[in-house]
Amino acid sequence: MGMWIGRGVKARRCYGFDEIALIPRSLTINPQDTDLTWRIGTLELEIPILASAMDGVVDVRFAIEMGNLGGLAILNLEGIQTRYDDPSEIIKEIISPASEKDIESVQAAYSKPIKETLISQRIEEIKRGGGYAAVSAIPQRAERFGKIAQKAGADIFVIQSTVAAPKHISSTYKSLDLEKFCKMMRIPVIAGNCVTYEVALALIKTGIAGLLVGIGPGAACTTRGVLGIGVPQATAVCDTAAARDFHYKQTGKYVPIIADGGMVTGGDICKAFACGADAVMIGSALARTKEAPGQGYHWGMATSDVNLPRGTRIYVGVTGSLKEILFGPARLDDGSQNLIGALRTSMGSLGVKNISEMQLTEIIIAPAIQTEGKIFQAVQKVGMGSSKGDAEAGI
After folding, report:
1. Where does the pLDDT of residue 6 fall: very low under 50, low under 70, confident under 90, or very high at 90 and above?
2. How far apart are CA 179 and CA 250, in angstroms?
3. Shortest CA distance to 177 belongs to which of 214, 146, 200, 153?
4. How far apart are the C-alpha atoms of 288 and 295, rounded to whole Å?
C-alpha cells in the first residue's frame, strides 16, 4: 500500500475531512426521527458530543450546562481549575497579553502547583449541579488523580496524552500500567490519543471504555508543526474504527471511538461519524460559546509546556450560547452553529436512523467538495468561505 516518495521509501495517502464527501442512499428520513444516543460504559448520553478538556472551554459552570443539554464536558485536572481557588482572575491574565507574549503568560499561569483538594471540590461542584463529572489527567498522574476523582464521585476518568501507546518506557518515572489501572477503577476509563489500527487495537484490549482518536488536528494545537506527527482525521478515524470492529467481533465488547479534534462545522462532525466515530470531542466550536470560560480565546493542553509547547492561544470569538451552538437557532450561515441540527439533517438526508447506520454511509474522495462553485463565498468570506477558514488559520 502507498506510493513511492523517494528511492526505497513508500508513503501511504491519507485523507482529512475536507477531502471527502458523503453519498445519500435511495431513502430519506425525517431528521426528527433520528436517534443520537450513545453509550460509554454504563452511561447513556443524549447527544454524541464531548467538550474538550481545555481550560478555555470547560469549567464547572460549562460542564453543568453541557450535561443539562445532554452532552458531556471533560474538566482538565492538570489545568487552572485545580491550581487556583478562583480561576477567573488567572483567565483574565491569560487572555489579556499582547500576542508576542501568549506562550509566556500561559506558562506562568500553569507554574502554580495543582491542589489535590480542588480536584474533589470541582467534581463535587459539578455533581451538585446535576451533571456527569468527567475529568482528565496525563498518564503520569492518572493513578493518583484517578483515586481522588473516583472517591469524589466522578463518573468518567480520561487519560490523555499527545501520543498514547499501550506500553511506555521511562527511566525517570513509573509508567502507567493501563490494564491494571482500568481494573482498579470502578468508573469508565477513556484513553488516547492514537491514530492507527495497531495501537487502537492494543489500547482497546487493555479494558478502556472509550478511545480518543486524533493527533494534532485541533485548532489550537501545533503538534504537527512542532513534532511532524499526525494522521489526517478521516483516515485516522476509519483505521481505529476498524480496530474497534475487529475487537467487537472477537470478544463481543464494543468500545466507542471518539474523534478528537479537526472538526469546526456540522459537516465535519457528520463526516467523522460516517468514518466510524461513535462520538466526537470538540474544542474551538465550543470555545465560541458565551458559557466558555475563555471568553472567545482558546488554547491547547500542551500550550503551557515549559520546554516544548505544542499549542498556541487563538481567538475564535463569542458567537452564541452553548444551546445555540449545539441546537440552534443558527444565527450564522457557516455551519458553526446548531451542530446537532446539522447532524440530524445529514442523517435524515442520508437515510440513516442512528449512529451505527451512519457509520455505513458511502464515502467518496472529493477534493473539490469545499471549493466547487463557492468562489463568491470564498471571495466575500461568507458561508463556507468564512469561519471555517478563519478557525483553521487561527483568527
Report:
1. very high
2. 18
3. 146
4. 7
The CA-atom distances, in angstroms, between 4 and each of 11, 141, 230, 308 are 6, 42, 19, 32
The Cα–Cα gap between 368 and 175 comes to 45
Long-range contacts of 121-125 (CB under 8 A, 24+ apart): 122/60, 122/75, 122/81, 122/82, 123/75, 123/149, 123/152, 123/153, 123/154, 124/152, 124/153, 125/60
Say if CB 317 and CB 289 are below 8 A apart: no
**Angle at the Cα of 178 from the Cα atoms of 124 and 190, rounded to 5 degrees:** 50
Q: For residues 221 and 168, give the distance between their C-alpha atoms in angstroms, rounded to a whole number.
A: 23
Determine whether 313 is an active site residue: yes
What's the pTM? 0.93
Task: Report all structural domains of the chain as residue ranges with CATH numbers, in order of start.
Answer: 23-393 (3.20.20.70)
Cβ-count burial of 10 within 10 angstroms (0-12 exposed, 13-18 middle, 19+ buried)?
A: exposed
Alpha-carbon distance of 391 to 75, in angstroms, equals: 23
Predicted confidence at residue 97, as pLDDT, reads 65
User: Per the residue annotation, which of 182, 194, 221, 275 is the catalytic one?
Assistant: 221
Catalytic residue among 122, 244, 313, 344: 313
List pLDDT tens digits, range 129-167: 998 999 999 999 999 999 999 999 999 999 999 899 888
How far is the C-alpha of 66 from the C-alpha of 38, rounded, in Å? 16
